[in-house]
Design the sequence.
């Protein structure tokens, strides 16, 4: 299957653009606006649900399929302003504190001001403390140092920083000449970029849809209820396009498209998963079938909300999930090709 390098380049471009937009769960307005503008430039008419998901009808007729990726990311909020003017965190999403230690960040105030900061240990200097290497990492020992001249709580409050303000992490997005994409938040902006490329393929007439297809970009996946509402009417099947986890006995790597047969929510639909495997074989894609014991997806939330749908899960292999992540153009390409084959094939 040949799609043209321009579409793969576009997918990577969108991944980079999306990763650089701060969007921790609950603070996704900017990334929603970006998606709407980009989809409208393609000639589509996207809509935003009350909850904040971005929906777009790609066209086609017959039983409707939804392809879902999430654009909310891990992040944090200000739990409290400390006596010394530094910030105590509360996490958004699941990750160990050592995954953000030493990271640059941005504090987003409710008034619209932003301030840069650094996430540090309360005892960060090995020249001062013997506990730096052994200190337990939790919300009592990991804090944000604001890049302003603050020495006490009142100084920080005077800036306008308050409890409940959002904190986003520097994505440090890099694309190497060897095809690797390194960044925070490839979960799940890698897949969102792939769906944008799919939309462009359909727009350009490179794919003829064999059924009705919707794209769904959700904004609450990292806290478990992204796909629980706002699903278009008439959907009979939904596939989450999320990251393929790499490690342990899993066969997925950064060059493959992962087809998930089961995660923490149980097995995925037999027919959907089998069709995805057969298409990957037919088009000679580099793929793996895997089981993810510590994983949940948007479509799990959709099923839990009571929707009567068939469900599946695929995605490009992403290394170091919920940390500083890495994938490769090959994994992006294999995922895009599998999706192109799926939406253009007649369901049997």
Sequence:
């Amino acid at each position: 299957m040949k799609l043209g390098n321009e579409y793969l380049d576009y997918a990577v471009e969108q991944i980079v653009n999306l990763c650089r937009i701060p969007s921790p769960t609950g603070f996704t307005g900017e990334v929603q606006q970006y998606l709407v503008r980009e989809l409208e430039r393609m000639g589509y008419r996207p809509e935003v649900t009350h909850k904040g998901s971005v929906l777009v009808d790609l066209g086609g007729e017959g039983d409707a399929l939804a392809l879902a990726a999430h654009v909310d990311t891990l992040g944090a909020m200000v739990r409290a302003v400390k006596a010394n003017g530094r910030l105590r965190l509360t996490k958004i999403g699941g990750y160990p504190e050592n995954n953000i230690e030493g990271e640059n960040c941005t504090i987003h105030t409710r008034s619209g001001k932003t301030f840069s900061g650094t996430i540090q240990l309360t005892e960060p200097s090995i020249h001062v403390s013997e506990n730096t290497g052994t200190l337990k990492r939790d919300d009592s020992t990991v804090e944000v140092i604001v890049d302003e001249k603050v020495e006490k709580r009142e100084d920080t409050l005077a800036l306008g920083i308050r409890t409940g303000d959002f904190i986003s992490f520097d994505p440090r997005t890099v694309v190497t000449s060897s095809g690797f994409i390194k960044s925070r938040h490839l979960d799940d902006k890698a897949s969102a970029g792939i769906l944008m490329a799919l939309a462009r393929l359909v727009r350009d007439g490179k794919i003829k849809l064999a059924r009705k297809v919707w794209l769904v970009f959700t904004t609450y996946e990292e806290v478990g209820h992204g796909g629980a509402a706002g699903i278009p009417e008439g959907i009979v099947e939904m596939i989450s396009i999320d990251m393929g986890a790499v490690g342990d006995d899993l066969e997925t790597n950064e060059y493959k498209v992962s087809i998930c047969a089961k995660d923490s929510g149980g097995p995925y639909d037999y027919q959907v998963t089998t069709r995805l495997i057969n298409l990957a074989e037919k088009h000679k894609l580099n793929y793996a079938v895997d089981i993810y014991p510590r994983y949940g997806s948007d479509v799990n939330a959709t099923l839990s909300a009571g929707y009567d749908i068939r469900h599946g899960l695929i995605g490009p292999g992403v290394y170091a999930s919920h940390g500083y992540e890495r994938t490769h153009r090959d994994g992006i390409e294999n995922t895009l090709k599998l999706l192109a084959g799926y939406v253009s094939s007649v369901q049997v």
User: Anything to note?
Assistant: The chain has a mean pLDDT of 97.
